[in-house]
Design brief:
This protein has 17 helices and 23 strands. The protein has about 550 residues and is α/β, with parallel strands linked by helices. Helix 11 crosses helix 15. The longest helix has 20 residues. It is an enzyme of class 5 (isomerase).
């Protein structure tokens, strides 16, 4: 991604930039949101409600209101099975968990919390929900994950997963968001709450061993026999995230040669190298944030990392260093559909519109239908649930796929399983994913891509989200005939919240940011860097013209 890089990018985080954990947690309790200020209202984006306590965008009132709204939603939908709740190591996650449990217990919700107060990855919550609900039509489970994903250490986040195990759809989050804001506006008058110590002892609160359940089932997704038999030497950096205590049991249970680079957990994440923009961000797809593991690449046949809630992956190979997410996803798709004979013959390949078109070419060579959807993993949930999608992935390094027998594994992103697949691929192909990517591009074309951000106010962002193909007046894109202009995704007909323009050897997509006053332009060329830059220039000109038009 282009932008102005910080002088600290890729360097150890200095003490001066570490967040004051005590002040952050005090602000969580002491500062109350003003429902009249848009930035302080509950707002569910593609991955739940996120914010910072200092900015009054993620505080105790938000969590109390959202949890009460979830309780009421469950009642309205007849969801009366257990609710599985997990947290990541962000500093605000523990106090938010305590707030949520106070409301869940007061509402009589059967709640499953992690055994021994362990952290819980997003995929472990999805796995627990699906495992409980398998074969059931009543007493269905759902879940909550308290995480802002890979966001900086001062962030907080809260996600709801309904009984299908995946991220809640917009109709669900819209209802919860509206009700939560109404509760805040009323001063939390209708929020039920009981003291935390009492909530922990409630007859409805029970511990659940997420680690044992998830790890024991992993063999139904990953071929550990192949990994163990090959003797590949593996490394993993949990980046101080929720899966930090999962990797040891995985290595022990399956007898694989896996070294945990660090099991350190620190709410300031002081062990991270600084990301491109001068912030600490636990992003396994960023070469700046991944300096520790990149520096160790020659010690392992393949190594990997996951973000804070372990729903995203980063793959470091001896041959190529850190792979771009699109590169590994292309290799993963090519491998899975050739090595999972029990998957349905019509199981499609799922990708978001801004993921690489190399996946399109891989799918075509495999004879598989491509299922292209808007940004957001929620669009893959139904297909993964019923097996009509073998794989669903997005360019930000999030993916999930079916069990080896073709049934559902996780309907949320699973960074652990995706990371371990890099080991299976290396073991079975006797080449690491970096080498396989070069072979793939030698046969299907080698793309170059970039994402740029451009300023846009609220009105312009709203206009961009509603752009129609008729507003794009050009007939050519970077010297080639425009083949398609999309405002709806080909896979499911859903609005993309922007526009995508394609030619034979390139494409761009433009969509507004949900959190900042910018819009994002993604572009990819199958020619060269000069063609990519021309794509970006023409893309920005087209979008600016459309935004400026009455």
């Amino acid at each position: 991604m282009s932008g102005r890089f910080s002088t600290l990018a890729g360097k150890p985080a200095p003490e001066s930039m570490l967040v004051d954990i005590a002040r952050l947690r005090d602000a969580y309790v002491d500062l109350r949101p003003d429902a009249g200020v848009p930035s302080q209202r509950v707002s569910f984006g593609t991955s739940g409600h996120r914010g910072v306590s200092f900015e009054r965008s993620f505080n105790e009132w938000h969590v109390l209101a959202i949890t009460q709204a979830i309780c009421e939603y469950r009642t309205g939908q007849g969801i009366d099975g257990p609710l599985y709740i997990g947290i990541d190591p962000h500093a605000l996650s523990q106090p938010a968990f305590e707030s949520a449990l106070e409301v869940l217990a007061a509402n009589g919700v059967q709640t499953r919390i992690a055994k021994g107060g362990e952290y819980t990855p997003t995929p472990a919550i999805s796995h627990a929900i699906l495992t409980h609900n398998r074969g059931r039509t009543a007493g269905l489970a759902d879940g909550i994950v308290v995480t802002p994903s890979h966001n900086p250490p001062d962030g907080g986040g809260f996600k709801y997963n309904p009984p299908n195990g995946g991220p809640a759809d917009t109709d669900v989050t819209g209802w919860i968001q509206k009700r939560a804001n109404a509760l805040i506006e009323s001063g939390l008058r209708d929020v039920r709450r009981t003291p935390y110590a009492q909530a922990l002892r409630a007859s409805t609160t029970h511990e659940h061993d997420f680690i044992a359940a998830y790890v024991a089932d992993l063999a139904n997704v990953v071929d550990f026999d192949a990994i163990r038999g090959s003797g590949v030497h593996l490394g993993v950096d949990p980046l101080g995230g929720a899966g930090v205590h999962y990797w040891g049991p995985i290595a022990e249970r399956y007898g694989i040669d896996l070294t945990v680079v660090s099991d350190e957990v620190d709410h300031t994440f002081r062990f991270m190298s600084v990301d491109w923009d001068g912030k600490i961000r636990m992003d396994p797809s960023s070469s700046h944030a991944m300096q520790r593991l990149i520096g160790l690449k020659d010690q392992y046949d393949v190594a990997f990392a996951c973000d804070t809630d372990h729903d995203r992956h980063g793959i470091v190979t001896r041959s190529s260093g850190l792979l771009l997410p699109n590169h590994f996803l292309s290799v993963l798709v090519d491998y899975l559909y050739q090595h999972r004979p029990h998957w349905r013959a019509d199981a499609a390949v799922g990708k978001t519109l801004v993921s690489t078109a190399l996946i399109d070419r891989v799918a075509k060579r495999l004879g598989r239908r491509l299922h292209e959807v808007p940004v957001g993993f929620k669009w893959f949930v139904d297909g993964l649930f019923d097996g009509s999608l073998g794989f669903g992935g997005e360019e930000s390094a999030g993916a999930s796929f079916l069990r080896r027998d073709g049934t559902v594994w996780s309907t949320d992103k699973d960074g652990i399983a995706a990371a371990l697949m890099s080991a299976e691929i290396t073991a079975r192909m006797d080449r690491d994913p970096g080498e396989l990517y070069r072979e793939l591009t030698g046969a299907l074309g080698s793309p170059v891509s970039e994402r740029v951000d451009a300023p846009a106010n609220a009105e312009q962002k709203a206009r961009l989200s509603k752009l129609s193909p008729q507003q794009v007046k050009s007939t050519e894109l970077a010297g080639e005939k425009i083949e398609s202009v999309l405002d709806r995704a080909p896979g499911n007909g859903a609005a993309v919240g922007g526009i995508k323009v394609c030619s034979a050897n390139g494409w761009f997509a433009a969509r507004p940011s949900g959190t900042e006053d910018i819009y994002k332009i993604y572009a990819e060329s199958f020619k060269d860097e000069a063609h990519l830059q021309r794509l970006l220039e023409e893309a920005q000109a087209m979008v600016d013209e459309a935004l400026g038009a009455t």
